Amino acid sequence: MRLIFFGPPGAGKGTQAKKVAEKLGIEHISTGDILREAVNKGNDLGKKVQVIIEKGELVPDEIMNELVKMKIKELNSFILDGYPRTLEQAKSLDKILKELNKPIDAVVLIDVSEEEVVKRISSRRVCPNCGRVYNLITLKPKNDEICDNCGTKIIQRKDDREDIVRERYKIYQKTTHPVIEFYRKNNTIITIDGSKDVEEVTKELFNMLGRFSQNDNN
Ligand code: ADP
Ligand code: AMP
Prior knowledge:
Shape: globular
Number of domains: 1
CATH superfamily: P-loop containing nucleotide triphosphate hydrolases
Distance between the termini: 11 Å
Order of helices and strands: EHEHHHEHEHEEHHEH
Strand content: 5-15%
Bound molecules: adenosine-5'-diphosphate, adenosine monophosphate
Structural class: alpha/beta
CATH topology: Rossmann fold
Largest sheet: 5 strands, parallel
Strand order of the largest sheet: 2-3-1-4-7
CATH architecture: 3-Layer(aba) Sandwich
Number of strands: 7
Helix content: 40-55%
């Protein structure tokens, strides 16, 4: 199964994509995670993108397209989370997938309001070591601000400050949201109300994906 998870920053794409990827045994490709890993390593890619990410702006299409191309070449099934974010990226992905003969099964649009996004992201914390995502309101670690998985102190992402979140939301509305129209022509779009709690969203998502996963396993 090949899916695109689409929606504003903070909608819960990463949270849900991890669950679906684990259940279906497929790869979760988060372009944000890949870029943050490069920044942490301090490699060439990381040096190029660090300032852009911290300002909440979009990394240039050429960089993103090449990165995703390398990643999906080897994979049969995957969830793309955070890509495509521009029409150019959607067109590039379309071209690559046609060449590889690996069409997208569905685009999952997780819908959440700006105020909910700001609330969620302001309380998001991440583990700088293993990448696990927490929320100080809805998904706290067992011990105060310590990662359940690896014991590292969890932190706030630099781009999760409220002013930058609002900027990222603006960019989403202006540049990313319109990309859904590109997919409306030829793809199945599954719209999920992402404002419910995590388990309810997961349940709805699995219900909607049920028939696709059955087809994929046959
Ligand atoms: P995205 O990948 O779309 O940016 P995340 O999955 O990182 O979003 O979720 C953003 C924040 O909101 C995280 O702190 C996460 O724990 C929390 N979160 C995710 N889904 C929900 C939900 N349905 N209800 C409340 N909080 C949520
Ligand atoms: P995310 O983890 O999806 O919220 O992404 C974090 C940041 O990484 C974004 O605000 C962008 O700066 C950058 N980024 C991630 N994916 C893309 C993409 N497809 N195109 C451009 N920039 C991206």
